[in-house]
């Protein structure tokens, strides 16, 4: 099983050692290109505008300038925010932490793909940015990510936001999890609550020692764990299943 997560805008502020070799080593060359481009942008006067940062977020540009020499920390500690708070990596028992390390892949505008054990410095770069000179990062990363992940077998549980989902489409072996809020029989898409629910779903999946290999098994498992999960109709060829998790 692969569990696909987005990163978070919020990141822990401190690390302890310099950048080292990352998982998915086949991404080394495109990572260098994005890293060079981001540092160059951050040394120009256009970074705040291109990165879409408010005045209060502009200090993140300083982090980007120092990426090659800045202290780093594990991905499991780096990302903060609602999704990762509800995933609660630090409170998992050791066997669930091991499954999380094997199963979770975090998509990143800067690094492409990361595992929880990778160590990287804090940075600011969304997958939705058009970074000179490569342009849109989702389109830039797409062929490299496909080469890295297409050969990986098994169910793919997609908990990414739309921005990060554009970087790879895993096809009909995947289940895209949507979070809907139901009030008086009416269902709507939610954002903040969706992050919390996706984190809780990811936690349920890494706490599970049993093999969940199909979309139907996934829906049954999440229902057993107390989630209100509804599997959509079989997808068109080449398209993922849709699993709605209903909250109120």
TrEMBL record:
<dbReference type="GO" id="GO:0005829">
    <property type="term" value="C:cytosol"/>
</dbReference>
<dbReference type="InterPro" id="IPR005583">
    <property type="entry name" value="YaaA"/>
</dbReference>
<dbReference type="GO" id="GO:0033194">
    <property type="term" value="P:response to hydroperoxide"/>
</dbReference>
<protein>
    <submittedName>
        <fullName>UPF0246 protein</fullName>
    </submittedName>
</protein>
<dbReference type="Pfam" id="PF03883">
    <property type="entry name" value="H2O2_YaaD"/>
</dbReference>
């Amino acid at each position: 099983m692969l569990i696909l997560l987005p990163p978070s805008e919020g990141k822990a502020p401190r690390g302890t050692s310099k950048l080292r070799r990352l998982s998915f080593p086949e991404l080394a060359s495109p990572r260098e290109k994005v890293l060079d481009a981001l540092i160059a942008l951050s040394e120009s006067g256009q970074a705040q505008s291109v990165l879409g940062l408010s005045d209060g977020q502009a200090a993140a540009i300083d982090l980007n300038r120092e990426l090659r020499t800045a202290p780093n920390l594990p991905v499991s500690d780096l990302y903060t925010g609602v999704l990762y708070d509800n995933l609660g990596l630090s409170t998992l028992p050791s066997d669930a932490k091991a499954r999380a390390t094997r199963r979770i892949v975090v998509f990143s505008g800067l690094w492409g793909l990361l595992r929880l054990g990778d160590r990287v410095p804090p940075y600011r770069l969304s997958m939705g940015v058009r970074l000179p000179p490569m342009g849109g990062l989702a389109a830039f990363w797409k062929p490299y990510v496909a080469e890295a992940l297409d050969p990986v077998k098994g169910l793919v549980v997609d908990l990414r936001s739309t921005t990060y989902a554009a970087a790879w489409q895993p096809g009909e072996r995947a289940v895209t999890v949507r979070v809907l809020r139901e009030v008086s029989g009416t269902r709507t898409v939610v954002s903040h609550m969706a992050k919390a629910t996706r984190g809780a779903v990811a936690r349920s999946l890494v706490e599970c020692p049993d093999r969940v290999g199909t979309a139907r098994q996934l829906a049954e498992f999440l229902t057993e764990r107390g989630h209100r999960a509804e599997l959509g109709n079989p997808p068109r060829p080449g398209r993922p299943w849709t699993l709605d998790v209903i909250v109120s």
